[in-house]
Specification:
This protein has 292 residues and is mainly α. Helices cover 71% and strands 0% of the residues. Helix 2 packs across helix 4, helix 3 crosses helix 4 and helix 4 packs antiparallel against helix 8.
C-alpha cells in the first residue's frame, strides 16, 4: 500500500505504535531479538526505580508510634500482599522472598500501566517544541511511553515467573523429584502403563508451563494495548477540529467526555491488571510447591 493510500487517521495511529528502537521502524515479527525498544526499557526501568525509592523511603521512615498517611497506606498494601501470599504459598521460607517480590511487581505494574493516563500527544508535543521529535529522523520522532503495551515487557516478566516456577519446583521437590514428576503426572499408572504414558505426561506438563507463561504475559499486554488504542481513537476526535463549527464543537465535546469517561474506567483496568499479574505469580509459585 502506498503512503498516499493511508488516511491521516491511520497514519496517526500507526505512527504512535512505532517504538524508539535500534531499527527505526515497527517490529514486524513477534520474536526478534535483534530489536531493542529503548523507550520501553527506559520507562520500565524508571518506574522500577520509583517503586524501589518509594518502598525504601516508607521503610526508612517507619515509626512505632502513630503512623502518618503515607506509612499507613504502605502498611495496608504490605499487609494485603502478605495475607494473599500466606493463603497461596505454603512454605514460610519461600514467602520471605515471594511476598516482597509480589509487592514490588504489583506496584511496578501499577506505575507502568498508569503511564497510559498521560495524554497521548503530550510527550510528542514536548518533543516537537524542543526539536527532538518533530520530523522523521529526529531522536524522539518515534516514542511509546507505555511499557506494558510492548509485548516484550509482559512476556519478559512472565518468563521471570516461569524461572521462579522451575526454581521452587526443583528446590522443594529436589532435581530428581521435579524431573520425575514431569513424566508421571498428571496420569499416574504403574508398570508398563506408566512407561507408555510418560511421553504424554511430559508433553502435557510442557504445554501447561508454556500456556501459563504466554497467558500471563498476553493478558497484561492485550488489555493495556487495547486501552492505548482507545485513547488514540479518542484523541482523533479532538484532532478533527477545523474551527468553530457544529461538527468540530461536537467532536471536541465528545473528545472531552469520552476521554474523561475512559480515563476513569481505565484506572480500574490499571489496578486490576496489576493485581491479576501479582496473584497469578503467587498462584503459579504456590503450585510449584505442590505435587500432582
Amino acid at each position: 500500500m502506498a503512503a498516499s493510500d493511508i488516511s491521516p487517521q491511520s497514519a496517526y495511529i500507526q505512527h504512535h505504535l512505532v517504538h524508539l528502537n535500534n531499527i527505526g521502524e515497527k517490529q514486524t515479527v513477534i520474536a526478534n531479538f535483534d530489536v531493542v525498544n529503548y523507550d520501553s526499557l527506559f520507562w520500565a526501568l524508571l518506574m522500577g526505580l520509583v517503586v524501589v525509592f518509594v518502598l525504601w523511603r516508607a521503610a526508612s521512615r517507619a515509626t512505632t508510634g502513630v503512623p502518618g498517611r503515607f506509612q499507613m497506606g504502605v502498611e495496608m498494601l504490605v499487609d494485603m500482599v502478605e495475607n494473599e501470599s500466606k493463603s497461596i504459598v505454603p512454605n514460610e521460607v519461600s514467602r520471605r522472598f515471594m511476598s516482597p517480590l509480589a509487592l514490588t511487581v504489583f506496584v511496578w505494574i501499577i506505575l507502568m500501566n498508569a503511564l497510559d493516563l498521560i495524554p497521548v500527544d503530550l510527550l510528542p508535543w514536548i518533543f516537537k517544541i524542543t526539536g527532538l521529535g518533530a520530523e522523521h529522523g529526529d531522536p524522539l520522532y518515534y516514542h511509546r511511553i507505555l511499557p506494558t503495551a510492548d509485548l516484550n515487557v509482559p512476556i519478559g516478566m512472565a518468563l521471570g515467573v516461569l524461572l521462579l516456577m522451575f526454581y521452587y519446583g526443583i528446590k522443594i521437590k529436589s532435581p530428581g523429584g521435579f524431573v520425575k514428576e514431569l513424566f508421571i503426572a498428571p496420569f499416574h499408572a504403574p508398570g508398563l502403563a506408566g512407561v507408555v504414558l510418560a511421553p504424554f505426561n511430559l508433553l502435557l506438563n510442557l504445554i501447561e508451563y508454556a500456556a501459563k507463561t504466554v497467558s500471563l504475559g498476553m493478558r497484561l499486554f492485550g488489555n493495556m494495548f487495547a486501552g492505548e488504542l482507545i485513547f488514540m481513537l479518542v484523541a482523533l476526535m479532538g484532532g478533527a477540529w477545523t474551527g468553530f463549527n457544529g461538527a468540530s464543537i461536537g467532536l471536541g465535546v465528545g473528545h472531552i467526555l469520552a476521554g474523561t469517561a475512559w480515563a476513569i474506567f481505565h484506572i480500574l483496568i490499571v489496578l486490576l491488571q496489576a493485581f491479576i499479574f501479582m496473584m497469578l505469580t503467587l498462584v503459579y509459585v504456590g503450585q510449584a510447591h505442590e505435587g500432582h
